[in-house]
Amino acid sequence: MNQVIAHEVDFTDYKSDVTPVWCPGCGDYAVLSAITKALAGLGLARENVALISGIGCSSRIAAYTSVYGFHGIHGRALPIAQGLKLARPDLTVLCAGGDGDGFSIGGNHFMHACRRNLDLTYIVMDNNVYGMTKGQASPTSAADWTESKLTPEGPGVPPFQPLDIALAAGASHVARCFSGKVQMLTKTIAEAIQHPGFSFIQVISPCVTYRPEMRDFKNLVHESFTEACTDRREARRRLIDDDGFSLGTLFKSVEPSYKPSHRNSEPLDELERQFAL
């Protein structure tokens, strides 16, 4: 159960004194605003919230909040977040990162986090590029994107499909938002936090430095997932015609979460004895 504070709070209470160093116009500013507004709207006590992140521009977000945070290593935010949730189920755990961090080196962790369905929220700021390391193609870059110097002829492979993978792997709450629609994103994050299972939110978050054409995404996004499916098969059918710009909560269902059996800890010397050769 999420623990709330008794008095009214402002979303700025959830921001730290650290000034973000994102490029002017980066969509991640809006994601930070939406996260803090969602936490304030739910009235969650800061000491009962933890935000775990990986590596990349978006993963700096943990330092910009005043809740407990952990800035992890590349691709490993989800294992840390899951371990924390298992050890401290009383905490509200959020995990944040980018498309390179979450879908490349962290892709395997992503799939298995979906199937474990632990009660945490994973927010991926997807800008179709590795921004912090100067513009390489990412897992969600289009096959014919030729602006990267490392792939001047394009990646040549189809882009990773986050919603399809999350749905197929077993996530029980799957949504897509756009950083330019802060009110919708705030509402979706709040609903994801309250959902009793693994909530995945893909946030289209433009990188105006290395993907300036993403400024036009505000004219391409459309709220198509107006009502969440509760049937996984129906959700898959919706994705068949998805153009990548459909917004809303695609799927939501209350399903079992992984709950390991907890044995009493054995003394260290006994564990060492069992592994002695």
Short summary of the structure?
By secondary structure, this protein is α/β, with parallel strands linked by helices.
Can you give a write-up of this model?
With 277 residues, this protein is α/β, with parallel strands linked by helices. It has one domain: Rossmann fold, CATH 3.40.50. 29% of the residues lie in helices and 18% in strands. It has helices at residues 28-42, 77-87, 99-105, 107-116, 162-169, 182-194, 232-240, 268-274; strands at 49-53, 68-71, 92-98, 121-126, 129-130, 136-137, 173-178, 199-204, 222-225, 246-252. The strands form two sheets. Strands 2-1-3-4-8-7-10-9 form an eight-stranded mixed sheet, with helices on both faces. A two-stranded antiparallel sheet has the order 5-6. Helix 1 packs across helix 6 (182-194) and helix 3 (99-105) packs across helix 4. The longest helix is centred in the N-terminal third of the chain and has 15 residues, at 28-42. The chain starts with 27 loop residues before the first helix and ends with a helix. The relative contact order is 0.14.
Structural class: alpha/beta
**CATH topology type:** Rossmann fold
CA-atom Rg in angstroms: 19 Å
- The average pLDDT score comes to 92
Which class in CATH terms? Alpha Beta
The number of distinct structural domains comes to 1
CATH superfamily: Thiamin diphosphate (ThDP)-binding fold, Pyr/PP domains
Report the major sheet. 8 strands, mixed
Strand order of the largest sheet: 2-1-3-4-8-7-10-9
Strand content: 15-25%
Number of strands: 10
Please identify, by name, the CATH architecture.
3-Layer(aba) Sandwich
Helix and strand element order: HEEHEHHEEEHEHEEHEH
Low-confidence stretches: none
- Assign an overall shape: globular
